[in-house]
Predict the structure of Aspartate-semialdehyde dehydrogenase.
Amino acid sequence: MSEKLKVGVIGATGMVGQRFVTLLENHPWFEVTTLAASAHSAGKTYEEAVGGRWKIETPMPESVKGMTVLDAEDVRAVADGVDFVFSAVNMPKAEIRALEERYAKTETPVVSNNSAHRWTPDVPMVVPEINPEHFEVIRHQRARLGTTRGFIAVKPNCSIQAYTPALAAWREFEPREVVVSTYQAISGAGKTFREWPEMEGNIIPYIAGEEEKSEREPLKVFGHVDETKGEIVPFDGALKITSQCIRVPVLNGHTATVFLNFGRPVDKETLIDRLVNYTSQAAKLGLPHAPEHFIQYLAEDDRPQVRLDVDYEDGMGVSIGRLRKDTIFDYKFVGLAHNTLRGAAGGALECAEMLTALKYIQAK
């Protein structure tokens, strides 16, 4: 790519926005030229707007410290200076949907970390290693919006990244009844231990909205583009998922324990083979943030562990372990994914890279 695409981050002062900013530093394809947040932050430098609320272990890039923050609601001012935007705004869902559509209608592609548009039928919700063909629905979305260039694409919920990749690798064996419990890090709530000291030594057996997302979103990921309807139709086969979602005293890394049945007989060795040899279009395209090996299988009885494995493939890979026969279900296993990298900003960044490689995102 001869010239870098100009990128805006809306919602730049929050934890996910901060993660976008750090991941985009020295990116080979993209350059941050615009940062936007709430009206409260507008007019301040980025360093002033964030103040003492920098939550990422990586230091704030020097290149953005003095950048003046714009008001994310001033859509035209933001859109005029960028080729596309990442969305990480913290607002009510109806307001997010409206704001992201306003950006798309300025012919500015939106790659969103938010959940607001995940169930809009013509908005692709993509894990680049699993369902990149869903980007084909963008032409239907553009027809609805009346755009030639603008659109919205989203990534799925962070918690499903710990187990959905395994289901994708095993799709030929027809996963059916799936029982999953997710043990979710506090950064998934945009918090650190300094801000949330009551989480130390504690668990909370409820995370609003997470169980519905964990049960439903994989079905959209495994769905298909219906050309007649102009939308993505969720998978309506035998796969059913039930879940519990628990907040645990971990900073980064969502763990999942999974029990499942298959529609076809399969042995453990074959299941492991499908995991470690899983390939994807994302890796073949050489996307800057696509992991070389999307899934690793760990044979040790005490793996995966957050401390040892959350940064696998720079936080963009998925770790699976403890695959074994079960006395009630066919098999059970444990999965782990980095929730703010693979599960949030990193996953959205990889989506933008694939959208660029496939020519959905281009310079204005």
Q: What stands out?
A: The chain has two domains: 5-155+345-357, 159-337. The longest helix spans residues 345-357. The mean pLDDT is 97.
